[in-house]
Amino acid sequence: MAGLNPNDPLLIDHLLSEEERAIQGAVRQFVVDKVLPDIGEWFERGEFPRELIKEIADLGMLGMHLEGYGCLGTNAVSYGLACLELEAGDSGFRSFVSVQGSLSMFPIWKFGSEEQKQEWLPRMASGEVIGCFGLTEPDFGSDPSGMLTNARRDGTDWILNGSKMWITNGSIADVAIVWAQTDEGIRGFLVPTRTPGFSTQDIHRKVSLRASITSSLYLDDVRLPQDAVLPGVTGLKGPLSCLSEARFGIVWGVMGAARACFVCALEYAQTRVQWGKPIGAFQLTQEKLTNMALEIGKGTLLALHLGRMKDEGRLVPEHISMGKLNNVREALNIARSARTILGASGITLEYPVMRHANNLESVLTYEGTSEIHTLIIGQALTGLRAYN
Q: Which end of the chain is more exposed for a tag (fewer CB within 10 A), N or C?
């Protein structure tokens, strides 16, 4: 009986094209060479290694699923595979790429003027310019329609006031995509971060996503020219469509974190000896490992199916909600189960399991909590809205 490959027990690799496998392999090698040797130190110190941004850009990972303007133009599955491999390293790296490509570059690509696209996208794809996405506020997370940040016209200019919170890449960003209330509805604004009145403050004392920069943004009479507004969208459709792009990456990414936890627990179970034999020889441990392998396989197949649907133009936001709800939940369960196999060793940064478990606690609630995605799916099934 042939053994199963712990990295791909269901041989999902055979469902991928040659190009998709090449992209996945390149990102996996980057993670092995550049992320895994030092991620424990970065997590412990609460640092994101900005020196790796250029290498990430050189691999084409910034805005990789967008067409033109210096972007790689891959299909959705290739982007998902890149997210999976990045998060197998750490959620902070997948979050960086996701925020840059899906939350910062995508709204410019989708809703920006041609001048805005030419000005920003090539430099963002090369890593010269870093972006962030300002939607969430201290008092408005799941209900962004109530945001207090506002923009008013002053002649031909716009004046922005307000604050945003839990913003990935906030303090290192060169441009912020800020969503604000206007007399016309919610609009998106391109805010160069050196604009007078714009400031940031990093959020510290995190026990999750430590190898990621999380900031608050403050806008105090920030004056912008007329051409700072994204002309192609008004209303919540703008920011919510960006979140759908980013959530798609999460569906894939968390399976990378789950795989890393599973592989670590499997290797540990094969070498850790108790009562004269490896703990992997005990039935309870084998049950845990089997359940992990099954859920990783199912979750990755779900992500692949959604990716193929996205490439065919058939994917809707409710499908993404199903993917995020299931895969984040199962990845967190896998991380917790893997921790029990490692015992006390599982709480140290010598192993990746607790780091992934802590990160997944954030992924469970950002870009739509599990409760919100449950209600989105419930409404799609019943036709009845359970929240306002």
A: N
- Residue ranges of alpha helices (H) inside the chain are 18-30, 39-45, 53-58, 76-89, 91-98, 106-111, 114-125, 237-271, 283-311, 317-342, 353-363, 370-382
- Using alpha carbons, select from 210, 159, 218, 216 the residue that is nearest to residue 189: 159
The set of residues, in sequence order, having a beta carbon less than 8 Å from that of 320 and lying 6+ positions away, is: 244, 247, 248, 251, 306
What is the rounded CA–CA span in Å between residue 269 and residue 106?
43
How far apart are alpha carbons 73 and 275 in whole angstroms?
55
Domains and CATH numbers, the chain: 12-125 (1.10.540.10), 131-228 (2.40.110.10), 237-382 (1.20.140.10)
Distance of CA 188 to the CA centre of its chain: 21
Rounded Cα distance between 334 and 341, Å, is 11
CB 125 within 8 A of CB 97: no
pLDDT in tens, 320-342: 999 999 999 999 999 999 999 99
As given in the structure block, the two tokens for residue 198 are 């714009």
Point out the catalytic residue in the list 87, 119, 295, 367. 367
The pLDDT of residue 2: 62
367 is known as an active-site residue: yes
What is the DSSP annotation of 78-136? Answer: HHHHHHHHHHHH-HHHHHHHHIIIIIIIHHHHHHS-HHHHHHHHHHHHTTSS-EEEE--
Are the beta carbons of 321 and 377 closer than 8 angstroms? yes
